[in-house]
Amino acid sequence: MVVICNEFAFAKPIIVETNSAKNDFILRLIKHLPEQAPSWYNSYSGIVLQKNRISTTTPPETKVDSSNVLDINQETNHLLFSSEVLTQQKMLKPTFYQSEILSTKTEGKPNDLFNQLNDHLNNLSILNSSISIFNISYLSPFSEAAADIYVYLLNDSITTTNDTLCLISFSPKAVHPYNGFSGTATVNPKTLTFRKIIARTTTISPKSPFILIQQDFEMTGTAWLPSEIKTKVLIDLKEINDQDITNIRHDGKLIIEGTKSFYQQEVNLPLTARDFKPAQQLADRAQTTKDLGQQQRMIRLMEEGKFSIGSFDLNSNRFFGYNLYERMKIGLAGETNYKLSKYFSVGGSMSYGLKDQAVHYEGWTNIFPSGDLKLRIHLGYQDMNMEYGKPDFPETQSLLNPESTRTLLIKNMYATKRFTTGIAFRMDDDLNFYLFADESENKADKDSPFIMLHPFETIGLTRSGLQVNYSSGEKKQSEHGLVMESNPPESDFYLTMIQGLTLFNNDYRYTKFEFRGKFDLSFSTIGLTTVMLRGGYMTEGAPLIEYFNGYGSYAGAFTISAPYTFETMRLNEFAASGFVAIFIRHDFSHWMFRKKFKTLPAIIFDQNIGIGQLGDQNKEQFHFQDYRKGFYESGLEVNNLLRLGYFSCGAAIYYRYGPYQLSPIHENFAYRFGISIKL
After folding, report:
1. pLDDT tens column, 468-481
2. What are the residue ranges of CATH 2.40.160.50 in the chain?
3. Do residues 607 and 584 lie in contact, with contact meaning Cβ atoms separated by under 8 Å?
4. pTM strictly above 0.90
5. In the Cβ-directed half-sphere of 641, how many Cα atoms lie within 13 Å?
């Protein structure tokens, strides 16, 4: 005989031990269900965060534990689409209801099927009388029609602080073959309120979708309301038409996950009609939010420079190029994408310099053994021009990265033919490693004033190395054609270690370290401070092209601005085998214009300091000067002077002083203008 529910162990039962009494208790529980829904009350206000994720898994099937719901944030197989919507909901009986979208974030390209699945997730609740998905209905155990069809077992009580709870187990009767649920519910038998429900589907056909639901409730004022609803749906991909989802395997499972979280809930609060916005105003705001998301995705694609044509991604950033050494370049670049294969990509680029009338090209192959970007094997070849002392960091040029403008100002370059192989892997979303080895032939292709002062014979170079990148916070990524909407990293750190090898008849054996870190400081109450630290060290024995170049960007008194560089240091004016530098930018606009800093001019103070040393023997050998006494410059920028959409214009002035100040005085000034993209 089963004891239905005890106040305490071996105490007098609250409910008699008969099936009729048990069913009567279930019916009374169902009768009080509406009291746990916000719509039961005269007024309601709350904030709802809905996270949905649609992905696929390949055989063998993933085992699902009915006692647990996997978190929506857990990385699951191959992502197809995800969305995150924050809404504020209000209700005032009998006629006022408002659901206002506060923010949205999506990843991947939505289609009709994904939108349909999102709607299902948003409305899934075990407390509904029935649940339907793909035209298949499941009868809830907490509907009036289910009382005589389900088996209910009321187990011993669970005693919490000042609370006695019953655990109800439920499952469909074997004599009634239909789609339903089995699981458990935690209930307070005195107040007839639910505290937690965990349920999984019991289906007639094994081809039917599998649904797992977990619902939690919390005390809000005097009411027990939903606090979180987690859902997970597994669907056999063989049961989905090819026109619904393409380019994925159809022998695995489609996984739909959702988490709906409720915050700041209030019931029976004093709302009036004035607290509700007109329907058209809400529709306009929702459309504005949607349009903003689309515009941001477009800007992110512009930043990457990629657009797809079938199974091929073209890179528009390579169509045109410019620097002071090669002048204008035209080119073409592209790479196969996931539509051809998720296990490899093949790409290449070619450019033609209008000044030197030379053709340069590169090609590469990337292999993804696991079918995603966590592990990548790289093989490549380059026939390109390269800057003397170029930083060796695993970063790409970006329109959203203001430091990229320095590439337009490069004046001194050498020609390289380089074979590269490497393996890249991610420890997590923030930490990336790249092990590599390369072998190159390097020479000065044409005469220039710089080459005349620093001549060198053809240099054969063999290197091995490790590059590490740590970026804290969310960062934009492109994965299998899906563009993730996220913010730039809160901080960025790069470390490169290189070892020169005496292989393939190459004689340069040396060790080189280089570091770069960028982060914000919040110690000041009068604005935002951003700091970039740079440093490097190398042993003796390196060729001229490997020595650090000082990172100057002065190509003339009036040129484009290149933040986080020495704006008054001439290009290749100095060299060093060891150096440290700090670039400090303090933006006063957040303090001066707290609410309108994005639209009003930004006043920025810059302070740049560097020190670099070169061995005396190297100074004589390479005819270089170092800056061991310290290089100093200060600047004042006025950004956001003119803003057109996402494009912002600004101007700046910098002054050079200290041991390396020039004579006459006017040569120490640098005047800059800049164009930046701000989302």
Report:
1. 998 875 544 444 44
2. 300-677
3. yes
4. no
5. 11
